[in-house]
Amino acid sequence: MALFYDDDQSMLADSASQFMAEEGSIKKQLRHWRDRDCKDGFGHELWKQFGEMGFTGILVSEEDGGLGMGNVEAGIVLEEIGRNLTPSPFLTSSILAATALGQGNNDLRGRYLPGLISGEHVFAVAIDEGAKHRPERIKTKAEKSGNGFKLNGQKDFVIHGVSADMMIVAARTSGSDDDNDGITLFAVPKDVSGLSQDAVRLVDSSMATHAKFDNVELDGDAVIGEVDGGREVLNKMLNAGRVGAAAESVGVSAGSMDMTVDYLKQRKQFGKLIGEFQALQHRAAHLYSEVEIARAAVIKAQQLLDAGAESAELMVSVAKAKAGTTSNLSVREGVQMHGGIGMTDEYDIGLYMKRDRALAEFLGDANYHTERVAQLSGY
C-alpha cells in the first residue's frame, strides 16, 4: 500500500485544510473559548459545521447515514485539527464513540448516531481510572440488577465529559480487576441519576472530568456489544482512537514546524536572517524528516486498521509512539528557535507545546506504546 493519499483522499485533505484554517483557526476558536473560560472548551456552532461538512459521520456506515469511510480519511481531518489546534469533540465523538456504537445493536445506533452525524450531540468515553492510561485494569463494576445493571466506580480524565450527551463506560461485569475477559461497554445518558462529574481544565485549555458512578441504574439495552465480551469492542475503539490521536499529533508537529520555519525566514540577528545559520538549518531539516516519518507510520497504521490486518494493532502503537516523540521534538524546537518570545502567550507556538502535552498522554504515552510494541513482538 502506497504511503500517500489517492485522488479522493487528496480532495478531502484540501477541503479539511481550507475549512480548519478558516473556521477552526487558533484566533477564532482556541483563544476565543479559552479567554472566555468556556465550560465546554469548544464551540458548538463549529461542531455543527463539522456535521454540515460531513466530518462527524466519517466513520459511520452509509446504512446508518454516515459516509462509511475509514481511518485514513478520519486521520486527514484530525491532522488538520492538530495543525490548527482546533478545539472540538471530533476524536472522542466521531472516532472513539462512533467506532464503539458501530458494534452496537440497531436500537443503540438509531438512538445516538443521527445526533452525532448532525453535530447536535457530543459523546465522551470513560475508560481510565488513574493518572495514566491503563485499560488492561478496570475496577469500575456493573452488577446485575433486575433486567439491567447497577454501575459503581470512578473514571478519570473523561475528555468532554461535562459536555457529553452520552458517555461510553467500560465496566467489569465479571472476573477480577486485571482479567482480560469480563468487560462490558455501556452507553450512559448524561442525565442518569447517580452520575456526578468534577470538571477540570487541562493544560491545553480542553475540559475533562473525574466521573463518579454511585449506583447508576442502566437498562439492559444500554449494553454495547455482548455482556462480558466488551474487550473486543474496547480494543477496536482504542485502536481507532490511538491512531486518530497519532494523526492529530502529526498535525501538531507540522503546524509547529511551519510556524517555526516561517519565523526563521523573518527574524534577523547580526544582520542576517537566522534561517541562514547552518546550525538552525540542520535542526529544521532533521525536524522535517521526523515529521514525514511520523506521518508515514500513521498512514501505514490507518491502512492496516482499515484492512483488518493482524499487524494493525502493533503498527497503531508504533504510530502513537512515533507521532508522540516527533510532536514533542517539534514543539520544543519551535519554542527554542523562537527564543524568549516563544515563552510568551502572545505567540501561538507555546499553545502547540501545551496541546502536545495533553495529546501525548491521551490513550497512552510514548513509553506505554513502546513497551506495548515490545510485548506484541514477543519480548
Structure write-up:
This protein has 379 residues and is of the alpha+beta class. The protein has three domains: 7-122, Orthogonal Bundle (Butyryl-Coa Dehydrogenase, subunit A, domain 1); 125-228, Butyryl-CoA Dehydrogenase, subunit A, domain 2 (Beta Barrel); 232-376, Butyryl-CoA Dehydrogenase, subunit A, domain 3 (Up-down Bundle). The chain is 51% helix and 16% strand. The strands form three sheets. The protein has a four-stranded mixed sheet with strand order 1-4-5-8. Helix 1 (7-23) packs parallel to helix 4 (71-84) and helix 5 runs antiparallel to helix 6 (106-118). The relative contact order is 0.12. The model has no long low-confidence stretch (mean pLDDT 95).
